[in-house]
C-alpha cells in the first residue's frame, strides 16, 4: 500500500483509492465470470448424468449404471422443434382452415348446399375441411402437416383420408403418416360433419401404394405387397467418392476400444465423446456402424456382434448434422491410396488418451488415429473427454435421435390409443432385488401397491400404458379391473414377421431377419411414455426410494 502523501490534495487520493477498488472489483468479476464460463456444461439428457460424470472421474473402474429402462436422446431434450433441413411444413390451424373455407365459399356462390343431401361426396373439398377441423379439435397433441384428398371408403357414407403429422412432444422435424376412415354426415345447415372417426391406419383406401397394380403377361393381376413402407427414411451410408476427395479430407479415427460390447449407455457416452472431439478438431469422424449389443439386452443373454447402428438410431439425422464417414469405406480408400501413390497419407498415431484434444488441434496430419490398446479401463473412448478436455469437448447429444423405424412403432402404439392415454413407468428388474440400495422399491411396485397408488393419480378406465423392465407379462393383471392396461408385448404385430418394421430391418440387414431386442424395447417404451397425458414415475411418485440408490436423491 502506498503511503498517503499529506501534500497531495485529499480528493486525488480518494479518486485513486476508488479507482483501485473499482479495478479490483472488475478483475474479480471477470475472474468469476471466466470460471463460470469454463465450468458451464450444457445439460446432458440423462437425469443421472451428473452422478455418472462423478462416477467416471472419481472411480478408476467405471461401469455404466443408469436407469436401464429409459433412454433420453436428442429429440427428447431440444427446447424447440428442430427445423427440417429440407424445409418444413406449416401445421394446419383453425385459422388456416377458415381461410380455405372462405376461399371455397367465394367460388361456390351458386350452390347453396342442401340439394345434394344424403350424398356424401368424398372429393368435395368441404369434406376435407370438416375432417381437418375434427382432427384439430380431437387430437390436441398432434400437429397436422398435410392432407391428401379424401377418397371413398367401403360404404357410401365413409371417406378415407391420409395425412402427415408430428407429435408436439417430439422435438424433431420427422413426419409420420396416418390414414383413417371417417363416417360422415350432415349438420342441420347441410354442412358436412364427422360422425365417427376410424381407428389408427383404418383408411386403407387412402393409403398410398408403393407400386401401382400392374397386369402380368398372363393378364392376371400381379400380387402387390400392400406395403406402407416409410419412403421418407434415407439412411444410406454416404460414400466418399474420388481419391482426391479422400486426400483432401481430415479424419479422426478411433480404433475399437474396451467400450465394445459394453452397455449401450456406455456406448453412447463414448461415441458422443469421440464425435465431440471430431467436431472440436473440425475433422470427419470415421464411424464403425457395427455395434456389439451387450448381453443385458439380447434374447440369448450373450453379447451379440454385428448390430447395425441404424437399428437403434437415426443415421439420416446423424449424417446431416455431423461429418462422418463409414469405417469400411474409409479403410478401403486409405489402403488404395497408399498402394497407388508414392507419398503416403500423413498419419498421426495417438497411443494414449492422455494426449488431449487441445494438443491435437494444431496437428496437420490427414488422419489422426487414436488407438486404444491399453488394458481396461485405460482403453475406454470416453476417457479422452475426461479432465481438462471436458471443458472443451461438448458431447453433441442433439445428433442422436432414435431410429425412425422404431418411432413409427411408437406412433402406431400411441396412435392406436388415439393419443389419449396415461402412462406408468414401473422400474423393477435388478433394482427391486437390491434391498440394500432400494429397500422399498419391490414392495412399492407390487401389484397391490400399484392398484392402490394409481387410483389416486389416474381416473378409472383410462388407457394406461405401462413402460417397464418387469419381464413377467401377467404381473400387472390386477390393474386390469380398474384400467385398460397396455403393455409393449400387446403390440408384437408391429415388429412381427408380417410387419413393416420387420421388412425394413431385414432389408437393412442384408436379408437376414432382425430380432426385436431389449434395447429397442427400451427405446419404444421411453417414447410412448413421453407421449402420455399423465405420467407416473416410479421414483418420485410410487416410491420414496432414490433413483440412484439409498441417500442419492439429491444427485438426481
Ligand atoms: C476393477 O475391475 C476389475 C476387473 O473387472 C476387478 O477385478 C477389480 O476388482 C475392479 N476394481 C475396483 C476398484 O472396483
Ligand atoms: C377459387 O377460385 C379462384 C379463381 O377462380 C382460384 O384461384 C382458387 O384456387 C379457388 N379456390 C378454391 C379453394 O378452389
Ligand atoms: C364431388 O365433388 C367434386 C369436387 O367438388 C366434383 O368435381 C364432383 O363432380 C362431385 N361428384 C358428385 C358425384 O357430385
Ligand atoms: C365414390 O362414391 C360415389 C357414391 O357413393 C360414386 O358416385 C363415385 O363414383 C365413387 N368414386 C370413386 C372414385 O369410386
Ligand atoms: C407394368 O408392367 C409393364 C410390363 O410388364 C412395365 O413396362 C410397366 O413399367 C409396369 N408399370 C408399373 C406402373 O409398374
Ligand atoms: C439419400 O441421401 C444421400 C446423401 O446421404 C443422397 O446422396 C441420396 O441421393 C439420397 N437418396 C434419396 C433417394 O433421396
Ligand atoms: C473446418 O475445416 C474446413 C475444411 O477443412 C474449413 O473450411 C473451415 O474453415 C474449418 N473451420 C474451422 C472453424 O476451423
Ligand atoms: C412368421 O412367424 C410365424 C410364427 O412364428 C410362423 O408360423 C410363420 O411361418 C412366419 N412367417 C414368415 C413369412 O416367416
Ligand atoms: C413385407 O414383405 C412381404 C414379402 O415381401 C410382404 O408379403 C408383406 O406384405 C410386407 N409387409 C409389409 C407390412 O410391408
Ligand atoms: C409425480 O411426482 C412429481 C414430483 O413430485 C409431481 O410433480 C407429479 O405431479 C406426480 N405425478 C402424479 C401423476 O401424481
Automatic annotation (TrEMBL):
One of the Pfam families matching this protein, by short name: DUF7074
Gene Ontology CC entries for this record: Golgi apparatus
InterPro entries (alphabetical): DUF7074, DUF7075
Domain of life: Eukaryota
Keywords: Membrane, Transmembrane, Transmembrane helix
Occurrences of domain DUF7074 (ranges): 119-202
Record keyword Membrane present: yes
Boundaries of every DUF7075 domain copy: 244-538
Transmembrane portions of the chain: 21-40
Protein name: O-fucosyltransferase family protein
Protein's organism: Fraxinus pennsylvanica
Taxonomy of the source species: Eukaryota, Viridiplantae, Streptophyta, Embryophyta, Tracheophyta
Amino acid at each position: 500500500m502506498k503511503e498517503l502523501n499529506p501534500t497531495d490534495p485529499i480528493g486525488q487520493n480518494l479518486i485513486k483509492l476508488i479507482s483501485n477498488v473499482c479495478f479490483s472489483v472488475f478483475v474479480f468479476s471477470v475472474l468469476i465470470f471466466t470460471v463460470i464460463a469454463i465450468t458451464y456444461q450444457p445439460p446432458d439428457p440423462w437425469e443421472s448424468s451428473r452422478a455418472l460424470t462423478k462416477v467416471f472421474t472419481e472411480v478408476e473402474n467405471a461401469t455404466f449404471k443408469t436407469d436401464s429402462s429409459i433412454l433420453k436422446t436428442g429429440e427428447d431434450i431440444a427446447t424447440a422443434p428442430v427445423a427440417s433441413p429440407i424445409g418444413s411444413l406449416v401445421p394446419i390451424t383453425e385459422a388456416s382452415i377458415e381461410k380455405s373455407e372462405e376461399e371455397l365459399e367465394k367460388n361456390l356462390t351458386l350452390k347453396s348446399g342442401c340439394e345434394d343431401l344424403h350424398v356424401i361426396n368424398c372429393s368435395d373439398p368441404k369434406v376435407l375441411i370438416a375432417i381437418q377441423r375434427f382432427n384439430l379439435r380431437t387430437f390436441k397433441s398432434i400437429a397436422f402437416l398435410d392432407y391428401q384428398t379424401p377418397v371413398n371408403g367401403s360404404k357410401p357414407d365413409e371417406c378415407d383420408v391420409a395425412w402427415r403429422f408430428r407429435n408436439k412432444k417430439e422435438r424433431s422435424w420427422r413426419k409420420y403418416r396416418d390414414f383413417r376412415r371417417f363416417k360422415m354426415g350432415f349438420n342441420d345447415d347441410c354442412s358436412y360433419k364427422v360422425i365417427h372417426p376410424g381407428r389408427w391406419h383404418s383408411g386403407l383406401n387412402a393409403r398410398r401404394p408403393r407400386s401401382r397394380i400392374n397386369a402380368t403377361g398372363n393378364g392376371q393381376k400381379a400380387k402387390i405387397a400392400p406395403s406402407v413402407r416409410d419412403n421418407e427414411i434415407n439412411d444410406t451410408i454416404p460414400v466418399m467418392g474420388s481419391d482426391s476427395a479422400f486426400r483432401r479430407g481430415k479424419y479422426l479415427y478411433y480404433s475399437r476400444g474396451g467400450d465394445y460390447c459394453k452397455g449401450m449407455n456406455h456406448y453412447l457416452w463414448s461415441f458422443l465423446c469421440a464425435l465431440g472431439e471430431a467436431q472440436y478438431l473440425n475433422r470427419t469422424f470415421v464411424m464403425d456402424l457395427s455395434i456389439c449389443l451387450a448381453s443385458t439386452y439380447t434374447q440369448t443373454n450373450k453379447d451379440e456382434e454385428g448390430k447395425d447402428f441404424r437399428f437403434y438410431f437415426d443415421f439420416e439425422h446423424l449424417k446431416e448434422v455431423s461429418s462422418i464417414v463409414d469405417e469400411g469405406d474409409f479403410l478401403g480408400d486409405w489402403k488404395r491410396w497408399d498402394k497407388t501413390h508414392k507419398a503416403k497419407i500423413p498419419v498421426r498415431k495417438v497411443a494414449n488418451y492422455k494426449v488431449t484434444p487441445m494438443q491435437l488441434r494444431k496437428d496437420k496430419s490427414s488422419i489422426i488415429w487414436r488407438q486404444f490398446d491399453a488394458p481396461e479401463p485405460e482403453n475406454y473412448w470416453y476417457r479422452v473427454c475426461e479432465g481438462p478436455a471436458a471443458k472443451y469437448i461438448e458431447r453433441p447429444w442433439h445428433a442422436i435421435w432414435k431410429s425412425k423405424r422404431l418411432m413409427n412403432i411408437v406412433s402406431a402404439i400411441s396412435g392406436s390409443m388415439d393419443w389419449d392415454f396415461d402412462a406408468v413407468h414401473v422400474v423393477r428388474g435388478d433394482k427391486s432385488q437390491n434391498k440394500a440400495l432400494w429397500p422399498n422399491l419391490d414392495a412399492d411396485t407390487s401389484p397391490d401397491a400399484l392398484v392402490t397408488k394409481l387410483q389416486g393419480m389416474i381416473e378409472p378406465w383410462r388407457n394406461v400404458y405401462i413402460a417397464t423392465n418387469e419381464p413377467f407379462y401377467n404381473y400387472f393383471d390386477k390393474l386390469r379391473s380398474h384400467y385398460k392396461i397396455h403393455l409393449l408385448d400387446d403390440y408384437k404385430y408391429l415388429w412381427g414377421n408380417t410387419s413393416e418394421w420387420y421388412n425394413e430391418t431385414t432389408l437393412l440387414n442384408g436379408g437376414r431377419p432382425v430380432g426385436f431386442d431389449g434395447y429397442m424395447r427400451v427405446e419404444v417404451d421411453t417414447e410412448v411414455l413421453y407421449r402420455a397425458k399423465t405420467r407416473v414415475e416410479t421414483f418420485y411418485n410410487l416410491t420414496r426410494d432414490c433413483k440412484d440408490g439409498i441417500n442419492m436423491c439429491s444427485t438426481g
